[in-house]
Design brief:
5 helices; four-stranded mixed β-sheet; D-Maltodextrin-Binding Protein, domain 2; two-stranded antiparallel sheet; alpha/beta; 155 residues; 2 domains
């Protein structure tokens, strides 16, 4: 019998996903152990779990190395892969943040109709660019040892 292979994003999402699998009768005891292993199996239920970087989950699924994956929606949107979102598990919420002066808060909306102060979401550059375009800004993003943005307002 063939195994169903699940790619899990390492970290908090993997822990939440494991809890969900355990609640539904799957054996994730191997995953709960402190180990450097990245591939775990539940022999009884013919399940294989692979722990990978969040940005790699869509790649594993798209190319068939995993049958399904659990990853944040932000990663799905950023990666832009040809995948089908089967179910929103409603855990692992994130919030996009853009730095700016406090005076800008009332003038601009960005993500879920809010402009948050805090660190810029540098790992989600595609989403940042799309959202800034929606509110009338065109940005150029350059990556090096730092993130540099050039912003111009569209009129």
């Amino acid at each position: 019998m063939q195994y169903l292979t699940v790619a899990l994003a390492k970290g908090r999402l993997a822990e939440l996903a494991m809890d969900l699998f355990i609640e539904n009768g799957y054996d994730c005891s191997e995953l709960k152990e402190k180990s450097r292993k990245l591939i775990f199996t539940d022999e009884k239920n013919k399940m294989k779990f692979i722990l990978v970087k969040a940005s790699d989950v869509p790649t594993y699924v798209e190319y068939g190395a995993a049958d399904i994956g659990i990853v944040g929606k932000d990663t799905l949107l950023e990666e832009g892969r040809n995948l089908y979102e089967v179910l929103d598990l409603n855990f692992g919420k994130c919030r996009m943040c853009v730095c700016g002066p406090e005076s800008a808060r009332e003038k601009y909306t960005l993500y879920n109709n809010k402009l948050h102060s805090g660190a810029e979401a540098a790992e989600h550059l595609k989403l940042l660019k799309e959202q800034m375009n929606k509110i009338g800004y065109e940005i150029t993003i350059e990556r090096g040892d730092y993130l540099c943005t050039n912003t111009t307002q569209n009129h």
